[in-house]
């Protein structure tokens, strides 16, 4: 019996086509994944500047982006105040930062943004400590409907009202040092709406909309305070850190609470999101870059200035929200600068 002649393409590839082609398929797959990961990882902080001996407050410094921010700034010479709701976790974070910056000055202070009293106590505890940079990083995402001890919706107070009050109480220190305020917002600000007459969203609550509102409000605060403090030497800028995995901000997300929902998403989350180290790069850039000393009222992503939500450019809306917020947190509004 005569063996049949193999097809021409088999002759070309060899007796086992798979043995010739699978390494190329794997290489192509790895290459595509590497390119996607590199693109989604965003830009590294391009600045090599140091901020030796400058005092920096990082809220929510015990985990995720806040912890990575603290590590990077400690390596840049900053003296850090780790503002954490849980002091034990704050102390653990201090130990983590110490591993990368052994000689860094690190102070852990309790700060619960869900309590105005805690915010006031935090500022009082600082005493005569100087503040060069305030990083409003702490926040929550997809929190179930509920109220803080002060009676406000959780996203609203944690992501906006708390940082608003904290920033105002620290203004004397920031003015004395011509400091920087950096507000960690989110791309969700583009989808947010301000429910001016119903900021607590009573009767129409949606965790997604509540989150968007709080992050838009934080960007609007940045713009309005930049106007009101123009010429003071204090700058205000906000940023989008990217879609970041591995943070406790997402602990209330349905994907975190359900393994059935989470398991199929793990590969995609890994592929299309940043890790916390990548997510902190824009924050670090805004803190250390000397060329931004006079830049204020802007919005950044991937270490570059970019467009913010159109609503944040509405002067009447930002002014109305600012004035109302001052009433809600019990402080006097700042008169707009005449510079």
Secondary structure: elements and pairs:
Layout lengths: L7 H6 L3 H24 L14 E5 L4 H12 L3 E6 L2 H14 L5 E5 L5 H11 L6 E4 L17 H16 L1 H6 L3 E5 L22 H22 L6 E6 L13 H4 L1 H14 L3 H4 L1 H8 L9 E4 L2 E3 L8 H15 L10
Parallel strand pairs: 1-2, 1-4, 2-3, 4-5, 5-6, 6-7
Antiparallel strand pairs: 7-8
Question: What's the gist of this structure?
Answer:
By secondary structure, the protein is an alpha/beta fold.
| Rg estimate, integer Å | 24 Å
Spatial order of the strands forming the largest sheet? 3-2-1-4-5-6-7-8
| Number of helical stretches of at least 4 residues | 13
Low-pLDDT residue spans: 9-13, 268-272
Instruction: Summarize the helix and strand pattern as letters.
Output: HHEHEHEHEHHEHEHHHHEEH
The geometry reads as: globular
Task: Write up what this structure looks like.
The structure is a single chain. Helix 6 packs parallel to helix 8 and helix 8 packs across helix 13. The chain is globular. It has 13 helices and eight strands. With 339 residues, it is of the alpha/beta class. The chain has an eight-stranded mixed beta sheet, sandwiched between helices.
Keywords:
339 residues; alpha/beta; 8-stranded mixed β-sheet; 8 strands; 11% strand; globular
